[in-house]
Input
Amino acid sequence: MSGPLDLSRRDLLRLGGATALGGLLAACGGSGGDDRGSGGANAEMQYMFWGSTGEQKAIQEMLQGFQKKNGGGTIKPVFTPGDDFDTKLNALLASNRAPDVSYLNTPMAYRIAAEGKLVDIAQYFDKYPQLKERLPETFFWWDEEHTLGTQGAQEVMLLWHNKKAFKDAGIEPPPVEAAKAWNWDQFVAAATRLTVDQSGRRPDQAGFDAKKIKRFGALAPLWSGAWYGLLLSAGVDFLDEAGTTTMINSGEAIKVFQNIMDLMYVHRVAPTPTQLGNNAPGLAVQLTSDRVAMSIDGQWALLDIAQTRTDYGIGVLPSYGTPTTTSMGGPTAIFSSTKQLDRALELYLYESDPTASNLFASGLWMPLEKKYYTDPAQIALWTDNKAHPPEYKTAVIDYTLNHSKAYFYQKTKNIEAVDKLLVPAVEQMQTGKQPVAKVLNALAAKLNDGVLKGRFPTPSLS
Amino acid sequence: MTLAIARRIALWIVLLAGAVIMLAPFVWLVRSALMTDSQIFVTPPQWLPDPVAWSNFSEALTAQPFYLYLFNTMLIEFFVVTGTTITCAFAGFAFARLRWRGRNLVFGLLLTGVMLPYAVTLVPTFIMWSSVDALDTFYPLIVPAWFAGAGGGVFSIFLYRQFFLTIPFELDEAAYIDGANPWQVFWRIILPLSKPVVVVVVIFTFIGVWNDFLGPLLYLGGDDSKFTLALGLATFQSTYTAQWGYLMAASLAVILPIVALFFLLQRYFVEGVTLSGLKR
Amino acid sequence: MTATDVAPPAAPAAPPLRPSKRGRSGLTKTEQRWGMLFALPAVLGFLIFTVGPMIASLIMSLTDWRIGAPISFTGVENYQRMASDDLFWKSLGVTTYYTLGSVPAVLIVGFFVAMLVNTGVRGKSLWRTIYYLPTLVPAVASAVLWIWIFNPDSGLLNSALRSAGLPGSNWIYDERTAIPSLILMSTWGFGNAMVIFLAGLQGVPTDLYEAVALDGGGAWAKFRHVTLPFMTPTIFYNLVTGVIGTFQAFNQAYIMTNGGPNNSTLFYIYYLYTKAFTDGEMGYASALAWVLFIIVLIVTVLMFRNARRWVFYEMGGAR
Output
């Protein structure tokens, strides 16, 4: 690749900068880049993140707590609101001003990790053994030996529901135990009982008006994070063993997708995308307003739902044989440009302690280390509070520990290109006008034509 | 006579119908600002908030130091609006009413500056400001304005140019014969005749700064004591969370000042004062 | 008939040379100096803030640069890659379609409304403010609003159509109607064009209206022979800036549709933006940017060329 004209990035940018500012800046151009001090213990560190105003406050408090405990210089929270997080981070990285610790989006994390921009956490397993205790699925390994660390927190997909709707319909709520998970037919049957139009009729009754629905039985799991668990339960992964061929057009997968589309167009128990609308409100609002009786959504919804007065419940996803759910979470990583590596690592450990911030107890996050899922005393640390309902231990903690697999977006190479094909394909299917098999076969043909580059490894930690 | 009345009535009907369409969003914004999130999205949609969630305003405006953000925004506004209005007028005058070699070429080059998508100039520009240690200061947002607004300011230059070109050249000729220099022609003749366009540039620049999100995010984002209103607003809506009631309440609070500004300034669009009475 | 005599020529083929009232030698030299002086801030600004990043991005387009990675020159590889990039062609088509629809719509509605609110109607200030309001609503808020307006089930548009006995549409949720829907939405934001037209209308000499009236010309004659010719510089401005701006449309795709359904609203800049910042392919994104630059440049040059035939400037103006 590198020819005789090989310029370093720095050179190129200098060129741009120098051209721009002319001789004026050429003199002081060398000062560009990192000037956050000598790296002494009192130098400033930066922690970059996104989130709601609530998350902003919680992170600021967590950082203050860390400083109080460990002393040292200030850690500046760099709160980056809105949708342009990657834009800002790219710009900072290009000008050698990356933060010390930061939230990241997965594709960018893998990309810059492979370029050596992120600290390889695997090198610190001996020094900080508890790092190895994190759930194996939460790691981002860019090759067999190197990992940029784990998710900032753990999340899984759950079957949320409004208990009152079930009581009204006179049916049992979804099971909380994975072993007793509904099969798909039971899920559809329940959704049919829960759906009512504005004159009180159900989809299986004469005169049902699908255009005027008072309450939908379910939301169709059209997001890949939501249907991935269903796919896995049918024994199909997104990729084959080798990671170079997609299984998305296998007979089982076609059936899973056909069933999802049938929720909207055959059983009429779920809103179509047009009925739902872009920018639809979050799950909490949907359940509270009794617009929807149940939905596959992330554990994070607990934060919002626990604050409403809705009588909500949590169950496990329906299953096609092997009960499985999707686990996920964006990575938090340390930039290798940090001048205070030890302190950054301490902070990295500290922030995942469920007592360090209220983000765990409030229901937004789940912890990363295994002991918080197995040891009752440790479990109580983060779930013994108002936000976490009684069934949480079985329906979430045990489910996560024994029946979850990491979201394929976090493990598939070249996911940006995959995403650009996958999303339009799902959009075609969800209109109900294109045969599922035809769309999936076309998608598979495109994916198998060199787009798939394998998957990232998940090596054993012991 | 009846024809005139009929015409007037027709005009009113058209204006009213249009106003309903134009006002719908605003009404919707006001109504959403007074609703809880679950009310906003209820179907079928309800137009009137019940109960009225006045707390959206107090909570949205205290969730963040909005007065500080307002101060920061106004500081940037002051320097950017004055700089752009003045230096772009200079350039517009040069391109419209003075003859000099290379004029059209230079104008064409300036115009190319807005044709390249900012997405690819963003990083080099950022590196440039970074290399002079100007991050988390107001300079990257203010300084370019005093050089004809850099990027987007070219549109203002172009606008001035187009308007200056409609003013009769006899006025300049007469002034030059009386011994005036180009500065005097600009200041005493052209500018006073161009109030409407100055007002347009002021309004557009003001609104552009007011709503600019990406600029402050890049250049002030590292220091939340320098945040602007647009950045504060974005906090309510991001990829993973949306607090619609707050967002709408804050949006409303944020646009009211510019509505007032526009209402005040638009009266400078008064027909015919500029050129009537001139001998043609 | 005689109205045409008083009105300025709508299409001066080549403006006559400026009468040489000014001394040939003395003032032209001064004029040269003053011209350069007045343009100096803008030229400096261009050299300092624009040229550098432009050149940098041009060089980037010849590399495989990904932010955070080493860089190597790949020549025109990025440009060759575009030829076989389906999404590039798709986004180019989408953007062209949108521009061809949105720019004329905004221009016509903006002009029409500017004329309306420039008349002697009572409450002029209020009308103008009302019609300008939509442009003041922040992009995020107006996107949320339009998503609701476009909702096929409960949205404002379909409700209105249905009560009028007309069939509804799936608006932004259908591949075929997504772009027309966004064009409709952009038309609603005609306020900026209107304001510029309003400012332009103040420069139309009222004495010429009187002249037309004396000649027995009606409203149409006034419009056709006075208003329209005097407004051509303003129309031209709105056309050029409209085209340049619309080619770079971004927000609707970013906030409302994410480019969907099935890439039907994949605006060029949206595609470029995700390439640059989500995928980190700064080199390829730069190449995309320069192709768009060339396209917009050619279109703009053509518009300026063409302008000589229909834009009326005061004598001695742009040459």
Residues 133 and 182 of chain A are 32 Å apart (CA to CA). Chain A touches chain B at residues 13, 16-17, 20-21, 25, 28-29, 31-33, 35, 46, 50-53, 55-56, 76-85, 87-88, 90-91, 94-97, 279-282, 285, 288-289, 291 (CB under 8 Å). The mean pLDDT of chain A is 87.
